[in-house]
Design goal:
By secondary structure, the chain is an alpha/beta fold. 42% of the residues lie in helices and 15% in strands. The chain has seven helices and seven strands, in the order E-H-E-H-E-H-E-H-E-H-E-H-H-E.
């Protein structure tokens, strides 16, 4: 059993989707959770759910692409909880546009959240963990789109592939501080971001048919994974890219 009692975990984009699944897993393991996103109403809903699991939870309004917002959210987290043990850089966005029609603004829009935002959150968390001197964990939520092609989503794939490089480099740089740095690569998952895709029967049949487990992931599939990546006893687990896709990328 993973025990996160007394630990504080921040999950950006933790009020819905995969982030909420991760936050639930942390809470079920006894950890305190801070969720951050731009929508205060959704934060409040997630906090109420997490508190219902018997842990301390808080929500902080934050645009991860804004450096000042990220710094403020980290200060609020430390004021509320007094420490940090793990940050999951999960907040992200997507979009679909054929490459020949994609504008530079659209390219930048996705990278600002998925890559710049991850950089800012990871940097602020790393500063805190180094200063605390007690180790910790950093997690970057990438995607299996960093492995296979995603037509019409070159900006999304680029951001998620780049994040893998960031996490590997952090694993080397921060090892001397006992800070573990790992990536999580979800496959096709039932979330709001994929709701439109799920309405296409042919696409669903093709993707589930290629998945050995024969279904898409649900948020529940990321609960134990989230707690695992935050587990302070896994001191030798760093530089890893954990794929959770039901076997999609190996079939």
């Amino acid at each position: 059993m993973i025990d996160l009692s007394g630990r504080v975990v921040v999950v950006t984009g933790g009020n819905s989707g995969i982030g909420l699944g991760i936050a639930r897993g942390v809470a079920r393991a006894g950890g305190s959770v801070a969720v951050g996103s731009r929508r205060a109403d959704r934060n409040a809903e997630a906090v109420a759910e997490l508190q219902g699991l018997g842990v301390t939870a808080a929500g902080f309004q934050c645009d991860v692409g804004d450096e000042g917002n990220v710094a403020d959210a980290m200060r609020q987290t430390l004021d509320r909880f007094g420490r940090l043990d793990c940050l999951v850089a999960n907040a992200g966005t997507a979009g679909r546009k054929w490459f020949t029609e994609m504008s530079l603004d659209e390219w930048h829009r996705v990278l600002q959240v998925n890559l710049d935002g991850a950089f800012l959150c990871l940097r602020e968390a790393a500063r805190v963990l180094v200063q605390q001197g007690q180790g910790g964990s950093l997690v970057g939520v990438s995607s299996t789109s960093a492995i296979h092609g995603a037509p019409g989503q070159e900006h999304y794939s680029a951001s998620k592939t780049a994040l893998l490089g960031v996490m590997r480099s952090l694993a080397v740089e921060l090892a001397r501080h006992q800070i573990r740095c790992n990536s999580l690569l979800p496959g096709w998952t039932e979330t709001e971001l994929t709701a439109a895709a799920m309405t296409h029967e042919k696409f669903m049949a093709a993707t589930t048919g290629r998945t050995p487990v024969r279904r898409w992931a649900t948020l529940h599939d990321f609960e134990t994974v989230g707690a695992f990546l935050a587990d302070p006893t896994l001191v030798f687990h760093t530089g890893d890219s954990m794929v959770v896709d039901g076997g999609y990328t190996v079939f």
